[in-house]
Design brief:
Elements (H helix, E strand, L loop, with lengths): L2 H21 L13 H4 L12 H12 L21 H13 L10 H17 L7 E5 L2 H16 L4 H4 L5 E6 L4 H9 L7 E4 L9 H13 L3 E8 L11 H11 L2 E5 L24 E4 L1 H4 L7 E5 L2 H8 L30 H35 L4 E3 L7 E6 L6 H17 L6 E5 L2 E7 L7 H19 L1
Parallel strand pairs: 2-3, 2-4, 4-5, 5-6
Antiparallel strand pairs: 1-7, 6-7, 8-9, 9-11, 10-11
Bound molecules: pyridoxal-5'-phosphate.
């Protein structure tokens, strides 16, 4: 591709993305293809000679686009969001053009120093202690793994890195913790048998007394309690584990404390939601995902630590070919996580925060919380719907229940309701299970979602529920 072609298609692609943002509602939110359909439309071998960009772009529109699920659709109410913004897209274009591999300071000083700066901004935006340091990870799963590995090293005085894990170290998280916690425990060599799942209360939040009991029981049986993972905003229901009392237990008993606020952390930009992270000063690490709810293209996970020295000591490795004369005075982020190579992710965060301002981010989050409460009020007004978890954030857990069915029959009917609602193509919601009940989740988190979309979601749900009853 020559320079002229690159410019031509560069302009065309940005126009295409701008049109996509404007017309996104014309697409069904959830892809309507069958398994194998896209693969069947693709050649099984690569082209021997290069093809024109016209042809490649035409095939993108014809073959790939129908197989895409549209995460940026304003009718996206599924899982948690992964929202983006024009500022973030533009930054990603520059990042791709620079194509820098930002493993150490020398391989792009601006990337290292911008990362340090924007992570300082983010830390202050969500009210973490000013003495903490941040680093961008790809995902919250990776950040949690980094935290568990650091906990393991700190607990064993860095002997596990040398000789492997020699004794059972136990880790504690609530029964509602995200699956990435168990995955991290397996990968980090704790063994999933050494994960203790702590019961939750009626709001699905961890019960601190039960945590302390479990720790005591392990100590009594000669195990070594190592770390606790608190969830602020659980995946199923948005529950908030009580961070401060759990932090006090961890301090008292000398346990590592990691806070998984992957989705909910963004809400702490609001002064009225700061309570979410009350007690974070007692923790050792906190993760939240700007790639979920802070307008920043996936991937971008913000990982904050009290003691970067412990993190670096866990991960650092000094091959001769990576040594530079500046190592003593700069931050080499390769030592702050698992992989060596690093994308320039700080650029999109910088663009997003500058383009919206902290106030712009706050008003988006505030509006999403308002819309979730609006949706909840529609449910409350109906005797045939019930809300199954407290609405703390922008997630509403509910089900249809006319009081005449129970158990598996009710679960099956709600599954049917969800399938029919999603078949509309206008909205996409997902489900979970709470206390054995099939629960429909509606999460407001898309940049373009407005009251009209939430009202439309409710109308579709109410209409489909009417057909269930008929
Ligand atoms: C509470 C919580 N923790 C962790 C994760 C994993 O996030 P990631 O995809 O960034 O690894 C999720 C994903 O939704 C989550 O809800």
């Amino acid at each position: 591709m020559d320079d002229q072609q690159f410019r031509k298609f560069g302009h065309e692609f940005i126009d295409w993305v701008a049109d996509y943002f404007n017309n996104i509602e014309s697409y069904p939110v959830l892809a309507r293809v069958q398994p194998g359909e896209i693969k069947g439309a693709l050649p099984s071998a690569p082209p021997e000679s290069g093809e024109s960009m016209e042809k490649i772009f035409a095939d993108f529109k014809k073959t790939i686009l129908p197989g895409m699920t549209h995460w940026q659709h304003p009718g996206w109410f599924a899982y948690f969001p992964a929202n983006n913004s024009p500022a973030s897209v533009l930054a990603e274009v520059l990042t791709a053009g620079l194509a820098a591999q930002c493993m150490i300071w020398q391989t792009s000083p601006a990337a290292a120093e911008l990362e340090e700066t924007v992570m300082g901004w983010l830390r202050d935006m969500i009210g973490l202690p000013a003495s903490w340091s941040g680093v961008i990870q790809d995902t919250a799963s990776t950040a949690t793994l980094c935290s568990l590995l650091t906990a393991r090293e700190v607990r064993t005085d860095f002997a596990s890195n040398r000789s492997g894990v020699r004794e059972p170290l136990t880790v504690y998280a609530s029964t509602e913790a995200h699956s990435s916690v168990e995955k991290g425990i397996k990968i980090a060599g704790f063994g999933s048998e050494n994960l203790r799942t702590i019961p939750v209360d009626e709001t699905f939040a961890m019960i601190p007394d039960r945590l302390e009991e479990a720790i005591r029981e392990d100590e009594r049986r000669g195990r070594r309690p190592c770390a606790v993972v608190v969830t602020v905003g659980t995946t199923s229901s948005g529950a908030v584990d009580p961070l401060r009392p759990i932090g006090e237990i961890c301090r008292r008993r000398g346990l590592w404390l990691h806070v998984d606020a992957a989705y909910a952390g963004t809400a702490a930009v609001l002064p009225e939601m700061r309570w979410l992270l009350d007690g974070a000063h007692l923790a050792d690490s906190v993760v939240f995902n700007p790639h979920k709810w802070m307008l920043t293209n996936f991937d971008c996970s913000a990982y904050f630590v009290r003691d970067p020295g412990a993190l670096i000591r866990t991960f650092e490795i000094h091959p001769e070919y990576l040594k530079t004369g500046k190592d003593a005075v700069v931050k080499n982020y390769r030592d702050w996580g698992i992989q060596l190579g690093r994308r320039f992710r700080a650029l999109k965060l910088w663009f997003v925060i500058r383009s919206y301002g902290v106030e712009g981010i706050r008003s988006m989050v505030r509006e999403h919380l308002r819309l979730a409460r609006l949706f909840a009020s529609r449910l409350e007004a109906r005797p045939d719907f019930e809300i199954l978890a407290p609405v703390i954030l922008s997630l509403v857990c509910f089900r249809w229940n006319d009081g005449r069915k129970s158990g598996e029959e009710l679960n099956a009917l709600n599954k049917t309701l969800l399938e029919r609602v999603n078949a509309s193509g206008k909205v996409f919601l997902t489900h979970t299970s709470l206390n054995g009940r099939f629960v429909i989740r509606l999460v407001v988190g898309q940049r373009t979602t407005t009251e009209r979309h939430v009202r439309q979601a409710w109308e579709i749900i109410a209409a489909e529920a009417g057909r269930l009853e008929a």
